[in-house]
Amino acid sequence: MLVIGYEAAELLDIACVTTALQMANRIGDLTHRYHVRLAGPAGDPIDCGSGILLLSQESLERVTGPLDTLFVSGGMGFERAAQDVRLVGHVRRLARESRRVASLCTGAAVLAAAGLLDGRRTTTHWRFADRLAASHPAVTVDPDPLYIKDGNIYTAAGITSAIDLTLALIEEDHGCELARQVARDLVVYLQRPGNQAQVSLFTAAPPPRDDVIRRLVEHIAEHPNHDLSAGALSMLAGVAPRHLNRLFVEHLGLPPGRYVRRARTEAAAHLLTSTTLPLPSVAARCGFGSAETLRQAFTARYGISPSRYRSAHRAATAGPT
Description:
Order of helices and strands: EHEEEEEHHEHEHEEEHHHHHHHHH
Shape: globular
Structural class: alpha/beta
Number of helices: 14
Low-confidence stretches: 316-321
Largest sheet: 7 strands, mixed
Number of strands: 11
Strand content: 5-15%
């Protein structure tokens, strides 16, 4: 296993992978242990830009395959790294000699520069997704999921989603039980679904200073079980439905109906993990007509049913047994 860093690579991108894999070595009775190495251009130390200097164990130029997994870290230096013809060339070379290839956070830009993401669905840190899509039209960029697998190429989203991806790889290699044990020792969720959104409406940046949008967003969050149709919201805001749609798209990036559906689904996720309410009650409190309607919306949003989501959360937070 090889992790590639470069100037201003993100320390957490690297540590999430290396710590999880080394913990799997300690916990598991592995016939084939993970051998993790950190490589940088010319074997130089990697200045993570956070006051931490990492020593490369390998010179990127001298690494040869075959490799099991090639990881390319992200970080604020990703643009320079993606423009470094020599670095990108070595990533391309090593990818051909690797069983699987993964990018972490903005490291997707390096894989894209190497042509490894053309024609593939990929993700990256939500803040830089539009930039990646604009720079590489042949790449299908989905800013929502925590990680995506497309063939033997894996891309992880923002920073700590590297843990989610690494747990998924451990599960692929050695089964769910070892992934569960590693997650427990790391004190993280056993497995957040790969296509769970990286940014929640309730933790994203606050709404713009537009008074109409702010009032409506607050109303939706506080009253998910009320009538939140476009007509009802238009009357509440005192604007025409067409103007309301324009305001939502301009300030929130979603039309009113999609925003309300997402807000209700996230409210349901909160209730599922913080209460023991039965699914019909959760559905009613969040404005869904039935438990089946909730299930459909939840599966579309998170890639997992509400009941499985609740069970996974309980298993992940139960602690060691």
